[in-house]
# Entry
Amino acid sequence: MAKKRLSFDFVFIYAVTMLLIVAILSPVVIILLGSCLNTSFLGLSSEQWVSGTQGIFTLKWYAYVFKLYGESMAFSLKIALLSVIICLVAGVPGAYVLSRKPFPGSRILEELVLLPLSLPGIAMSVALIAAYSRIRGQWWFLLGGHLLYTLPFMVRTVTNTLRSFDVGRLEAAAQTLGAGFWQRFRLVVLPNLRHAMIIGSLLVLAISWGEFNVSFLLNTPLHQTFPAALYGTYTSNSFQVSSAATAIFLLMIIPILIAVQWIGGNELVSVEQGA
Amino acid sequence: MKHRRAVLILPLLALTFGLLIWPTVVLALRSFQSTGDILQASSAAGFSFRNYASIVVDPYYRGALLHSILLSLFVACGSILLCLCPAWLFVRKEFPSKRFLRALFTLPMSFSGIIVGFIVVIMLGRIGFVPLVLERMTGRPWLSGLAYRFCGLVVAYIYFEIPRATLTLESSLRKFNFQLEAAARSLGANRWQRLMYVVLPLILPALLSAFAVTFSVSLGSFGVALIVSKRFSILPVELYDQLIGFLNTGLAAAMGVVLMLIAFVVNYSMRNLGRSEEERLG
# Structure
């Protein structure tokens, strides 16, 4: 009797999980198909297809999107890479101090660093605009918003790693062998954090590439991030062009996420929050 | 020793102050200025609560605020209920494609809101994929245009909360001692009793933290609504309109402060509740 009930639970859990998998995957599949298939083949027609292209498969829309939004893609990529660099430079040493050398107020600082994850992105972008209205037109102003929402991921990944093993003992060993502070940091601490730094960087890259809530308001007409450009596509372009643009967005993000899981292995990568 | 520590922490400290504390202070001050353009950094307008008053008094803004809170509430509850299943599966079962599956479940997290907006339109719009399929099968386009209703917005938001809910629940469920449930069963508790008196109290902290996460993310997200909500408004979209459309910075700032306060209060109270619950259970 009990066994039968248990199996009902299993069936339910598997069914809901399958439903979620289908719900996650089906739009992605439709977008990928829509970006490269002739839609008249599916029994739908659109004006663009009446004139010209024959056949089922085409990459015409990709070429169009690259021509149209190549610049904003490059800009997004630039912002994402700069975010990674700054997060590494500011986040890793900071996380080291927060977890290994706490000082009065370090808990509060850590809470503050993680706080943006639970603050509405749009509110923070208004705050940034209000505080720094003078430099609003600069392209790097956008970087501020991105850092606000990517830094927590780097800091948390690194502090989690530092708290999961006793790096202090390794440091003490190095110290008895005569290593100075900077030597220890460079030769003992950083190599042990390589794993965490790679995962953190990948997360920062993915979050920054997809960030919309903050960057939409911080965008300037001359420098648009790719997600902000996507908004323009959705409101003014055809299904095929929108699909191709979205497909490019996805093709960038999917390998990153798979890499995060692969490198992270069975340790749960803490990606609990984010905008 | 001290100065080395200071050197290492300084960049993080500077970024936190420059990007979080100072802008928040300015935002709070600005929200009390009833008029003032965002381009004039030092426009001397009077101190008043008029902006906050208008959010509460004006039925349109009040409606947007209520919609926002309701939406976040529904989305948080819905995504937690759905995502308990995959989270439980990830914790309890070992299967070969687990990493790939987990990567799949993190996929919607990096979708910006607008992409989810696009997805919900092509799936549940007037001629979306689901209505088309249902029309083929049943002869009637069920669910057509759902995307533009409140329900559609809830579905869309749940879509991008799936990763957050699943991962938060998974990391908390890992601490759950599943032997306790088996023990309760051996003591003769039926399924309902086990759920109510053993499982639920034990996973309550996990549920609370997942609620806080999903609630506050939904509260601040506006990409989806920017694309699909035409008949009703939510507060982030209103904020965007005030800032870009009417250049009414004071009101936009007040809305930002309201959103922040709600998110903060929910997070804080959920965490305290979870902590006291954990202490109670030992």
The mean pLDDT of chain B is 82.
